[in-house]
Every structure is written in structure tokens, then in C-alpha cells.
Specification:
With 182 residues, the protein is mainly β. The protein is 10% helix and 41% strand. It has one domain: Jelly Rolls (Sandwich), CATH 2.60.120.10. The longest helix is centred in the first third of the chain and has 12 residues. The chain is globular, with a radius of gyration of 16 Å.
Length: 182
């Protein structure tokens, strides 16, 4: 991510949730936040690297506002034991995901079955929620337009596992911890 990061506190509604936020709660938060044009307009955009602002999500969740320059993406990754949601606020993002639950530990390389790939186009206002160990990559395929999105995770991200992919072979490359991206 780009060195152009800053922090901004955006709170969930005043009513505190007694139970941890669900995927639906996170998706609703992301939708509501993505519709906040003042917030979306406040994100500094870098022509070369992603920028981000950490937000305060509902019920102790972790949330981010992310700017995506044209042609950028995350690479294949998961969010470990966190559930999550994201919504495109501006532009269009593509999510490539695996419709298969992978083992959580004890492997370095897996051969994926045919038919596990899913692709979703997510224009402004659209998003999705996902469960634990969801493996995906998110891309801004536009050659000339930035995209902006809102992401929320619960519990706050304990780690992100990064993968490389060649055809049907998925390889665990490294594990990032919160101190690597904050």
C-alpha cells in the first residue's frame, strides 16, 4: 500500500451491539459508509499505490476505506478467522474468489479442483459479505479510473495469508500480521 495513509475516526451508530457483528451487519455498515460522499471524497488518491484510512466499524470490528489506482489489486489472500464485507463506493472492482473451503494450516501448495473459480463485478453501490477463510483477490481493472471501497472485518484481522496462483495450483507465500499494515 502507499505511504499516503492517514487515520480518520468514523463511528458506527450510537447504539452498541450486544453480540458481535454478523456478516450482514458488516455489509450494512460498508453500504452506509460507501454512501457517505463527504467521507469518500476526503480520501487522498495516489496515482501509483493504494491509499487507505482506518475506520471504526460496528461492534469492535475493523474497517478500512481504500483507494485503488487504475490496474491495481490485492493478489490472492484470505482474512484467516475473520468474517467480512466490502462495498465499492466509486468506480468498479472485480472480485475473483474460490468457492471452496481450504484447510487452514499445515499446507504450502494445493491443487484446486476445476469449477471453484468465481468472478464478481462490483460497480459503485454493490458489495458482498464473506465468511472465515474466504480466499479471493480484488482488482481495479480500469485503465484510467480510481476505485474506492469500504471494507469491514470481525474480529479485527489477526492475520492475512498471501498466496500465489499458477493455473490450478495455489501456494501459500507468506503470512502478514497487523503490525505489517498499520
Amino acid at each position: 500500500m502507499s505511504a499516503l495513509s492517514f487515520s480518520r475516526s468514523v463511528s458506527a451508530p450510537a447504539a452498541r451491539q450486544a453480540a458481535p457483528p454478523t456478516q450482514a451487519d458488516l455489509l450494512e455498515f460498508a453500504r452506509r459508509t460507501a454512501a457517505d460522499t463527504e467521507l469518500i471524497d476526503s480520501l487522498p488518491l495516489d496515482p501509483e499505490g493504494r491509499t487507505w484510512v482506518r475506520l471504526q466499524g460496528p461492534g469492535g470490528s475493523e474497517a478500512w476505506l481504500i483507494g485503488w489506482p487504475p490496474g491495481t489489486g490485492t493478489g490472492w489472500h484470505d482474512h484467516a478467522d475473520s468474517v467480512g464485507a466490502f462495498v465499492t463506493a466509486r468506480g468498479e472492482l472485480t472480485e475473483n474468489a474460490l468457492a471452496a473451503r481450504l484447510p487452514t494450516d499445515g499446507w504450502k501448495t494445493l491443487e484446486l479442483s476445476e469449477g471453484v473459480d468465481r468472478e464478481r463485478l462490483l460497480p459503485a453501490g454493490r458489495g458482498r459479505a464473506f465468511g472465515r477463510h474466504h480466499v479471493h483477490e480484488v482488482l481495479n481493472g480500469s485503465p484510467d479510473q480510481h476505485a474506492i471501497s469500504v471494507h469491514a472485518y470481525y474480529p479485527p484481522l489477526p492475520q492475512i495469508r498471501r498466496y500465489s496462483r499458477s493455473g490450478q495450483v495455489l501456494r501459500l507465500e507468506h503470512v502478514e500480521r497487523p503490525e505489517d499494515w498499520q
